[in-house]
Write a structure and sequence with these properties.
The structure holds 2 protein chains of 2 kinds. By secondary structure, chain A is of the alpha+beta class. Chain A contains 18 helices and 19 strands. In chain B, a hairpin with a 2-residue loop joins strand 3 and strand 4. The chains are: A alpha+beta, B alpha+beta.
């Protein structure tokens, strides 16, 4: 099979407009005859479900949390980009497009990214009309800030809680449609399989997490808006419940998984405090605007933050300022993360050994405590709450953590996966961020897909579909239910010696060490064989107590971890298959003399789409070449 | 440090429920309250006992999924979410009592997990904005005074994340 991206012809700036006109429409009176399944209710899912219901489609929406508004989109802090050029500083749709393509290290599709930049302006209008309380100037107009090293101010924000405010807007739109009876909402429901009828996605199998009941749902199309897979690393900034199960089940039913090794690691997170650690907390990278990153010149074992204050300037190594004199502490996320790791690898890490200092003493001396408090007060409070240390008096300790996954289900220009009728939106797809995502772009993509792309592209597909519903009594549904039940019984009957979390921690550590901030062929090969062993051991030795017909959180975790193990192996294969470095994927074998990620554009300018071929069999690699007609590929340098 | 946990155990909503006592040693002061529960649950599974069910998700104080009445207060002694409460807020040797939300509108599902769909019903009864996707004016055509935008964002946080329920109303008054 080929990967046909279905990118429309014509000049970049006209593709989407032209495509919108060329797509088939569903008559308003006929929309109610179609039923659409939406899995996941974060920004992408809630906005899609609400918008489709407004158009007249019947929607069934599912989330594993007890309310759609818990989705992890809620935790996004920084903001949302849009090419409004309200600041009169030279921004434009083309500049946002260009920055996103370049930021993704030239591993995303021009047409998709251009469309994203184009609809970004509509998102802000939409959210303001809903009442999202974006930050404002005294004159009452919207405020913007520059974010993540962008040279224009195009980021809209609502205090440090932009994701929360945007999600509440989408959730409000969703609630309106639930009240109207156009959306049927299923909370505490987890999708455990995809059902294909005649080669098309026609339904899903879910588990009611309270009663344990396995249920079938049929529809004319299925939208996966299920977020990213960062929790494969066990420790990440994701919510504990974030998982890959829906996407992975779809992958096993024929949806290609694209660029799984492209993951983003965020430099300014609170370090691990002990073996009990369950998740990592991110602090906005705006901290690097004023904080200086350092470690001692010579290793000091177990150096505490309160003792760092007395270390003289001459004995400190401000390593980012030393290595990158022009960008200093503001180098991109991947560069900052990797250098922190190098310092710790050298043994110069502080605290537990896996941390570096982020010091505000000079900023406080220069601008006064009041100014720093106004800028970062909430972050400083959060840090003190978690660590017990006061960052006004001593440096913070930070360490990188997994934050976002650029890879995901392969989709074409219409957001359809390689399975007809199955779509992927938001972080769950791979399409817009290439090998690295820019700050404030995740919220933009989730809402672009849900509010302004899928309402158009889904109609083009549904217009070709008969109105008839498929019955959930069909053998395809029965078989899927049986497979789900068998898997659950297997997990519950193993009664081995190791807990689910023990397996997950081990997997996470392997992924972090060998498929994390920097990767080598040797390490990846080692990881691959150890993941295979771990997978085998999991099915022989996992201990899941309780039954299937009740609220059983260990069982939920076990199913998710089993899928993470399979995904982990594919991530390693993908990383092995890409010997170049690009964006967040740093292969030590491929770097410039300056130690920067070195791409190999002639050979690796493609999307790696992986096709599942059967349990335990190697997956098939299908390449979608990336063609650049509007940007010139350049090598990054931050010296 | 050492603590003793007195936790509400209830198999399902038909079960009468009871308190169970768990002495825990080697509690690190850097653990979050939920991490302390993780460690306890791991040890329960190892012993073949049912782990304690509790709700949680983001573990960074924003999603509103975690709950628990801790020593008679929602989310414990600090004005924060349970996931942001750390063991350093307790004394060595302390006995800590943990119950589910105690309100008839939040029936217990299992152990510390309660059904909060009553909140959804309030929102769906009309607590939403009636704006369709598309066809809206340019964002800057709706100017809103900064003061109002600021208050709204604080209010919304308090109202929408029921972390601090039931003192939400009280907190809101403080902010206003």
């Amino acid at each position: 099979m080929n990967l046909d991206s279905k990118i429309p012809d014509g000049p970049l700036a006209e593709k989407w407009t032209k495509h919108k006109f060329n797509m088939k429409l569903v008559n308003p009176a006929n929309k109610r005859k179609y039923e659409v399944i939406v899995v996941g209710t974060g920004l992408a899912g809630a906005s899609a479900a609400a918008s489709l219901a407004e158009l007249g489609y019947n929607v069934k929406a599912f989330c594993f949390q007890d309310s759609p508004r818990r989705a992890h989109s809620i935790a996004a802090q920084g903001g949302i980009n849009a090419a409004k050029n309200y600041q009169n500083d030279g921004d434009s749709v083309f500049r946002l497009f260009y920055d996103t393509i370049k930021g993704g290290d030239y591993r995303s599709r021009e047409a998709n990214v251009y469309r994203l930049a184009e609809v970004s302006v509509n998102i802000i209008d939409q959210c303001v009309a809903q009442g999202v309380p974006f930050a404002r100037e005294y004159g009452g107009l919207l405020d913007n800030r520059s974010f993540g090293g962008a040279q224009v101010s195009r980021t809209f924000y609502a205090r440090g809680q932009t994701g929360q405010q945007l999600l509440l807007g989408a959730y409000s739109a969703l609630n309106r449609q639930i009240a109207n009876g156009k959306v049927k909402m299923y909370t505490r429901s987890e999708m455990l399989d995809l059902v294909l009828v005649g080669g098309k996605a026609r339904g899903i199998i879910t588990r009611d997490l309270i009663t344990g009941k396995i249920e079938s749902h049929s529809g004319h199309a299925v939208l996966l808006c299920t977020g990213g897979y960062g929790n494969v690393f066990f420790l990440s900034t994701n919510a504990k419940g974030s998982n890959v199960t829906a996407a992975w089940r779809a992958h096993k039913k024929g949806a290609y998984f694209a660029n799984p090794c492209f993951t983003q690691i965020h430099p300014t997170c609170i370090p691990v405090s002990g073996s009990h650690q369950s998740k990592l907390t991110l602090m906005s990278e705006s901290l690097r605007n004023d904080g200086r990153v350092w470690v001692p010149k010579t290793a000091i074992k177990g150096l505490k933050a309160k003792d760092a204050v007395s270390i003289p300037e001459a004995d400190r190594d401000y390593f980012l300022e030393r290595k990158y004199p022009s960008f200093g502490n503001l180098v991109p996320r991947d560069v900052a993360s990797r250098n922190a790791k190098y310092m710790c690898d050298e043994g110069r890490g502080v605290g537990s050994g896996l941390a570096v200092f982020l010091d505000f003493a000079d900023a406080i001396k220069r601008d006064g405590k009041k100014t720093i408090e106004a800028k970062y007060g909430n972050l400083f409070d959060m840090y003190q709450q978690i660590t017990g240390d006061n960052p006004y008096e001593m440096p913070m300790m930070i360490y990188p953590a997994v934050h976002y996954t650029m890879g995901g289900l392969w989709v074409d220009y219409n957001l359809m996966t390689s399975v007809p009728g199955l779509y992927a939106l938001g972080e769950a797809n791979f399409s817009d961020h290439g090998a690295n995502r820019l700050g404030a772009s995740a919220l933009m993509q989730g809402l672009a897909d849900g509010y302004f792309v899928i309402p158009y592209t889904l109609g083009d597909y549904l217009a070709t579909m008969p109105y008839e519903k498929v019955s959930t009594d069909r053998p395809e549904f029965k078989e899927a239910i049986e497979a789900v039940n068998n898997r659950i019984s297997k997990l519950l009957s193993t009664r081995g010696k190791k807990t689910v979390d023990e397996f997950h921690r081990e997997l996470g550590l392997l992924m972090w060490d060998y498929c994390g901030m920097s990767r080598t062929e040797e390490g990846l090969k080692k990881a691959k064989s150890r993941i295979q062993e771990l997978r085998k051991e999991f099915w022989e030795n996992v201990n899941v107590l309780g039954g299937g017909n009740e609220l059983n959180m260990e069982l939920e975790k076990a199913g998710r971890v089993a899928d993470f193990m399979e995904l982990g192996e594919l991530m390693v294969d993908d990383a092995l298959n890409r010997p170049e470095s690009c964006g967040g994927h740093f292969r030590e074998e491929s770097q410039t003399p300056e130690g920067e990620a070195k791409r190999m554009d002639d050979e690796y300018s493609f999307v790696a789409g992986w096709e599942y071929t059967g349990d335990g069999k190697p997956e098939n690699l299908i390449k979608e070449p990336l063609i650049f007609e509007n940007v010139k590929l350049t090598q990054r340098s931050y010296k | 440090m050492k603590i003793t946990l007195k936790v509400w155990r209830q198999k399902n909503n038909q079960d009468k429920g009871r308190f169970a006592t768990y002495p825990i040693e080697d509690v690190s002061t850097d653990m979050s309250f939920l991490e302390m529960f993780d460690v306890l649950n791991e040890s329960l599974v190892k012993k073949g006992e049912d782990p304690i069910a509790f709700d949680h998700d983001c573990r960074e104080g924003i999603c509103g999924m975690c709950s628990m009445y801790i020593n008679g207060r929602p989310h414990g002694p600090l004005q924060t979410t349970t996931c942001q409460l750390h063991m350093r807020s307790f004394k060595d040797g302390e006995t800590i009592t943990v119950e589910p939300w105690r309100a008839s509108s939040f029936p217990v599902i299992k152990d510390l997990v309660v059904d909060r769909t009553s909140f959804e019903r309030i929102q769906q009864a009309g607590g939403f904005v009636s704006v369709n996707t598309g066809g809206v004016p340019d964002a800057n055509e709706i100017p809103i005074p900064k003061r109002i935008a600021d208050v709204a964002s604080i209010q919304q946080r308090v109202l929408d994340v029921e972390h601090v329920w039931p003192p939400a109303r009280m907190l809101q008054l403080c902010y206003l």
